[in-house]
Design a protein that fits this description.
24% of the residues lie in helices and 16% in strands. The chain has 89 residues and is an alpha+beta fold.
Length: 89
Amino acid sequence: MSVEAPGAIPADVLQSTQPVLLRGLVSHWPLVQAARRSDAAFCDYLRGFDAGQRLMTWRGLPTIGGRFFYNDDFSGFNFAREGHTLGAV
């Protein structure tokens, strides 16, 4: 399904219990436009919002398979909490 504006989404689609792909819905967003140009343009766009404030990030090894949880003996966590600026991330 191709949709150009949120108001164009039919009610039966909005009420569906099945996954729906709304192709083109946010194609006009500046971030999407930058990403279409290149990965570097995408990153540069995001860096433009860096106000120098530190963000809390979680970093885990590939071995956790994306599952942030306790470590094996429950004495801590299987990830590290770190603070970085948006530009650094």
